[in-house]
């Protein structure tokens, strides 16, 4: 049998709360497991007797074991032992008589033991009141016991009071207890009066939160007499307005929490309205003595009351006139936006709650005061806000007030006092139309009564276009219109768009326009005229730009409602191309290009920035794509300049982007892959789109498949259910269909290598030999490549692999095309074969020899200009799609041929794109585990960092020397060898971002040794930054695989060892100086792309390194990298630069005084051609700008006594820099001069 006295003693003696909790659990378990006849509950309560006060509290007696019975702390712990045991006791265990005994025992603590018993008693009673056997009538006994504390309650600590409040809250909000309290006390509610007397002086925030909740319950859930209600109101109203001395109490309670809790008291029940509303309005009428924050609090409290009082006739209607009389001036004469908005919300709430005659009476009061003010320009805007607040409350309020409001607006528009007056009247009219659109349109269903009320006002609204809007619109469109006329015209344009959007009133859902079709067409023609009337003049005129922007917004909303207007607008916009297409002599297209550049982005926004409300969500999207593709085809057919192609292509991509964003807002895409989607099939998706969206043209010359031969469209596709998978899938396929056509139009199949092979080259559209024209053509190719990237990026990996997009990297959407040779070449080996068979041959990595590497599978014909199209496909592929490229061997071919630079073209631009492709493959697939590729990279780098010769065995395996010797004359052999490192660097850039093992260690070691090469070390050092430069193609949006700490690892494995090599090895010989300079260049080239936190520990060495580079190298890219690092250090940790401050300032001034970008010191170690030639002096200008910015950072970071020695000289240098030829340098110099002006 458990010894409860022993447990109680251990609990009292312990100061460990965890141990006390364990003891309480043991005690509860012992009670529940003991036999009932042993009366464990009585023995448990009796166990704390040694610590309870005797009959004579003032006499301290020694009890058993030397414990003092008068010890307050020990007694508190003993009572806590009982409370803790109850917390762990099964709520169904105790019998009713035992619960009653506990209630009596703990209730007595409130009378006899104010020092130690209150907290434990409150906790114990809280738990006891939750017991199953608790009798509701005992709640009154507990409350009576608590009230017996009297004035001693406020002397309890906050923690104790919180426990008491929580007990009261539990009792008062328990339904059974509440019913018993009301039965015992009736309307007199004597217990409430006692509680109010007990707690009236509470100040602790945590206690107040519970006290306010209790007061709210007393008002809302009980039925006290009015006298008691008044007393309750006097208690909580005394706290209004409430605030905290600090922004937040230690308990986490904020001032807003207290305001909300107190607000709940005011709005608890309409029985308190007779006190609350006059009180709040009276506080508001105190005028300037009320601060803005208090005024807003009052208004929000008033709104809460009006929103929550259930009985409108008792809680709201008697006070509406008084509220309106007081609040209208807050808007009429108000200046503070927060106060005005809060006031309007109160008025809106009144109108929302009132009905019938009461609403009509209130509306008449508002109209009587506001409509007359519309004639006064001073009060027009404020009166409009008041009117709108009532109109917007609900449909019945709008229908009741719209007629007189519109009538007065039209009347005042005939006699306006000023342009601002006219503008404010139109703003009010537009707001009314916006409200009507929100109340009738947007899927809102009207009741028959509301529909009848709206319908009665339609004849009065219909003439607004010509009566109110058209005169102002015409004035704004006149040549020479003033700024005020244009501002008014903007509001007129907005109103005209809103007129088109108005729906006819009918019961239920309204879809029919309010205006006749002729009027709708006339309004849309007027709005379209703003765009189409000399758009080049609008672009040059800021006032006209404002009108055009407003017209675009209006047309966007109008065409969503009136679909025929969009088709006409698009057709009219592209009529600018007709004169050029119809002319036999091709005139200049500069005007057409300028017009299209202005119109197409606006058309894309109008058509696709929002999904149509009708069932077919693709109607507008396909309509604009059709027109754009038709015009692009026409321009290509007649040989228009490439600028026109680019403008239309960018418009197509803009259309896709607008539609995609609108789609994701309206119908978010499901993240779960749809394995049953039959639309994504490589053999049928094209025919699916061509059949489903037959209006899309075919600009690539491909003959559409007959409908009988087309894929069987799934029933879900035909029905257009507009589910997430359905709509997003169709968007992707339609957009990819467009991209496919543009790719196919740009390419053609060609035979080469003496008619033994077939590949792709650019089509006849790209036949120009002029360099400038070819540059513009390449811009167009880049645009359609980026368009492919954008569309393919929208696919998940299941969709990409299902469509075999990995193949399109090579075939460029011509994989199914057959090669049809001329009659003379019928014996061609690839005659009547599909292109994919010729260009995507299965490749075994083990079968190739470096001497005879595979052919680069991506076409390099047309000087490699088409490779950018392959980049557009491969850049957004998921790693799984890249894996498919590897499994077929195509990736091996690309990597091997790309590493060896054995593609068709060696143009710098194509080589740059090939490097980007290598980086993408190396990042999205673990090629460091492909031993053949790693071995080739090792051998290639070994050859690069060598002396250009190989052993006979190595040459026999690789033929590096033979191949380099066969390059065209005029190419420096050393530079050719250095260029072989670029693809290795490109692959390394991809590998390091996902690298985890050590299989690439030898390649990294060779890269580390590169700058030591005397002949080409400086080239390898500058190219070293390729590894660390940021790559957009590896960003998260393009599914790149980037380890969070890759930069840290790369820095410590590659850069930090180089930092130790950046100092001459014990001598200043030319070779040592050259080697140190190369490593310095490599380190700076890498570190400029690395965050400061990574290289922070090496900051001092990097500063020394930068100062050496500035001293020994001319102003160029190397010095620029070092200065960028110095600027970063000065921003992030200026103390690091403090020991080098004087040297840093001298180095900066030396750069500003250099001429021709040359160093002032002779550098005998520097090789001929060591510094790349800066044709445009851009690097020098960037160095000057960095220097000036760096100097400007110093005065705020350092004490001026450290800068005094050089201040005068720096000021002179900055004065000279203020006249620099480069604007950015001048701008930085002005800021730096201001910083140095205070150094004295």
From TrEMBL:
Domain MMS19 N-terminal span(s) in chain numbering: 71-331
TM annotation in the entry: none
Coiled coil location: none
SUPFAM superfamilies: ARM repeat
Biological process terms in GO annotation: DNA repair; iron-sulfur cluster assembly; protein maturation
Family: Belongs to the MET18/MMS19 family.
Protein name: MMS19 nucleotide excision repair protein
Organism: Colletotrichum sidae
């Amino acid at each position: 049998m458990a010894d409860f006295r022993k447990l109680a003693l251990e609990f009292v003696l312990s100061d460990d709360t965890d141990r006390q909790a364990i003891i309480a659990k043991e005690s509860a378990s012992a009670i529940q497991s003991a036999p009932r006849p042993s009366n464990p509950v009585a023995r448990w309560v009796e166990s704390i007797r040694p610590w309870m006060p005797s009959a004579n509290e003032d006499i301290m007696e020694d009890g058993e074991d030397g414990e003092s019975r008068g010890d307050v702390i020990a007694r508190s712990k003993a009572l806590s032992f009982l409370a803790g045991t109850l917390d762990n006791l099964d709520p169904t265990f105790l019998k009713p008589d035992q619960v009653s005994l506990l209630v009596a025992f703990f209730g007595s603590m409130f009378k006899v033991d104010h020092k130690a018993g209150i907290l434990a008693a409150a906790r114990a009673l809280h738990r006891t009141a939750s017991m199953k056997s608790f009798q509701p009538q005992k709640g009154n006994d507990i409350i009576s016991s608590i009230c017996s504390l009297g004035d001693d309650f406020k002397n309890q600590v906050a923690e104790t009071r919180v426990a008491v409040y929580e007990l009261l809250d539990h009792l008062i909000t328990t339904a059974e207890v509440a019913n018993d309290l009301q039965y015992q006390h009736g309307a007199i509610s004597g217990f409430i009066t006692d509680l109010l007397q007990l707690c009236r002086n509470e100040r602790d925030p945590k206690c107040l939160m519970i006290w306010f909740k209790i007061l709210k319950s007393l008002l809302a859930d009980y039925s006290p007499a009015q006298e008691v209600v008044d007393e309750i109101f006097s208690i909580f109203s005394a706290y209004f307005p409430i605030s905290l001395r600090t922004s937040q109490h230690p308990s986490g309670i904020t001032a807003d929490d207290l305001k909300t809790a107190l607000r709940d008291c005011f709005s608890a029940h309409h029985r308190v309205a007779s006190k609350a509303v006059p009180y709040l309005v009276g506080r508001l009428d105190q005028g300037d003595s009320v601060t803005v924050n208090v005024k807003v609090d009052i208004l929000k409290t008033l709104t809460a009351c009006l929103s929550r009082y259930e009985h409108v006739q008792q809680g709201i209607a008697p006070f509406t006139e008084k509220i309106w009389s007081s609040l209208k001036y807050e808007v009429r004469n108000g200046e503070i936006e927060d106060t005005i908005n809060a006031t309007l919300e109160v008025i809106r709430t009144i109108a929302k709650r009132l009905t019938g005659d009461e609403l009509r009476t209130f509306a008449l009061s508002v109209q009587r005061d506001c409509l007359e003010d519309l004639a006064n320009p001073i009060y027009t805007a404020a009166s409009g806000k008041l009117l709108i607040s009532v109109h917007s409350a609900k449909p019945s309020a709008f229908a009741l007030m719209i007629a007189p409001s519109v009538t007065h607006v039209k009347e005042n528009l005939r006699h306006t006092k000023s342009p601002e007056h006219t503008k404010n009247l139109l703003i009010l009219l537009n707001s009314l139309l916006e409200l009507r659109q929100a109340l009738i349109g947007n899927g809102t269903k009207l009741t028959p009564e509301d529909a009848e009320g709206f319908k009665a006002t339609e004849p009065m609204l219909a003439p607004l276009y010509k009566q109110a809007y058209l005169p102002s619109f015409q004035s704004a469109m006149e040549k020479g219109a003033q700024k005020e006329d244009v501002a008014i015209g903007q509001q007129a344009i907005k109103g005209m768009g809103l007129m088109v959007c108005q729906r006819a009133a009918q019961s239920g859902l309204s879809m029919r326009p309010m205006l006749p079709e002729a009027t709708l067409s006339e309004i849309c023609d007027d709005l379209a005229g703003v765009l189409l009337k000399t758009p080049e003049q609008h672009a040059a005129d800021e006032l006209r730009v404002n009108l055009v922007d407003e017209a675009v917004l209006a047309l966007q909303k109008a065409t969503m409602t009136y679909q025929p207007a969009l088709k006409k607008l698009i057709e009219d916009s592209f009529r600018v191309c007709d004169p050029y297409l119809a002319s036999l002599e091709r005139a200049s297209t500069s005007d057409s290009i300028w017009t299209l550049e202005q119109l197409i982005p606006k058309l894309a926004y109008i058509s696709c920035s929002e999904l149509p409300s009708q069932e077919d969500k693709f109607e507008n999207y396909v309509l604009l794509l059709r027109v754009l593709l038709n015009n692009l085809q026409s321009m290509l057919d007649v040989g228009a300049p490439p600028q026109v192609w680019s403008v239309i292509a960018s418009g197509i991509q803009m259309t896709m982007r607008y539609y995609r964003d609108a789609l994701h807002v309206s119908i978010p895409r499901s993240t779960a892959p749809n394995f049953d989607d039959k639309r994504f099939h490589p053999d049928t998706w094209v025919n699916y789109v061509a059949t489903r969206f037959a209006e899309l043209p075919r600009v690539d010359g491909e003959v559409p498949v007959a409908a009988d031969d087309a894929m069987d469209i799934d029933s879900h596709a035909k029905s257009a259910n507009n589910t997430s998978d359905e709509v997003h899938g169709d968007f992707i396929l339609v957009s990819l269909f467009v991209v496919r056509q543009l790719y196919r139009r740009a390419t053609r199949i060609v035979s080469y290598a003496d008619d033994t092979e077939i590949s792709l080259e650019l089509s006849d559209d790209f036949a120009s030999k002029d360099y400038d024209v070819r540059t513009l053509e390449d811009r167009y190719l880049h645009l359609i490549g980026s368009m492919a990237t954008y569309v393919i990026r929208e696919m998940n990996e299941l969709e990409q692999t299902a469509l075999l997009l990995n193949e399109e990297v090579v075939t460029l959407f011509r994989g199914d095309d057959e090669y049809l040779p001329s009659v003379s070449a019928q014996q061609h080996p690839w005659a009547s074969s599909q292109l994919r068979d010729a260009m995507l041959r299965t490749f075994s990595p083990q079968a190739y020899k470096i001497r005879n590497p595979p052919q680069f599978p991506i076409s390099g014909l047309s000087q490699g200009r088409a490779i950018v199209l392959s980049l557009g496909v491969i850049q957004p592929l998921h790693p799984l799609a890249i894996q498919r490229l590897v499994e077929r061997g195509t990736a091996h071919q690309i990597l091997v041929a790309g590493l060896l630079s054995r593609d068709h073209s060696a143009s710098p631009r194509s080589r740059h794109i090939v490097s980007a492709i290598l980086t993408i493959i190396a990042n999205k697939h673990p090629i460091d585990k492909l031993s053949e590729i790693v071995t080739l990279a090792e051998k290639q780098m070994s050859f690069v960092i060598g002396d250009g010769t190989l052993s006979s065995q190595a040459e026999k395996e690789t033929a590096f020397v033979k191949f380099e010797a066969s390059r065209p004359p005029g190419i420096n052999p050393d530079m050719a060898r250095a260029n072989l490192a670029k693809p290795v660097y490109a692959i390394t850039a991809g590998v390091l971002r996902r690298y985890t093992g050590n299989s690439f260690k030898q390649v990294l070691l060779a890269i580390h040794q590169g700058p030591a090469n005397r002949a080409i070390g400086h080239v390898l050092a500058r190219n070293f930054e390729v590894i660390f430069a940021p790559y957009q193609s590896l960003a998260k949006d393009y599914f790149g695989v980037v380890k969070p700490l890759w930069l840290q690892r790369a820095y410590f494995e590659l850069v930090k060892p180089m930092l130790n090599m950046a100092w001459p090895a014990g001598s200043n010989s030319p070779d040592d100086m050259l080697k140190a300079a190369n490593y310095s260049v490599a380190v700076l080239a890498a570190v400029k792309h690395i965050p400061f936190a990574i290289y922070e520990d090496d900051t001092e060495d990097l500063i020394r390194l930068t100062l050496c580079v500035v001293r020994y190298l001319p102003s160029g890219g190397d010095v620029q990298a070092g200065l960028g690092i110095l600027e970063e250090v000065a921003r992030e940790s200026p103390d690091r630069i403090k020991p080098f401050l004087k040297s840093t300032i001298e180095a900066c001034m030396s750069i500003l005084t250099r001429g021709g970008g040359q160093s002032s010191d002779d550098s005998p170690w520097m090789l001929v051609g060591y510094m790349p030639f800066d044709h445009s002096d851009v690097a020098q200008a960037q160095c000057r700008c960095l220097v000036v910015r760096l100097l400007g950072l110093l005065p705020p970071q350092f004490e001026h006594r450290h800068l005094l020695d050089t201040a005068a000289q720096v000021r002179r240098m900055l004065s000279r820099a203020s006249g620099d030829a480069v604007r950015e340098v001048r701008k930085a110099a002005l800021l730096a001069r201001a910083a140095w002006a205070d150094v004295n």
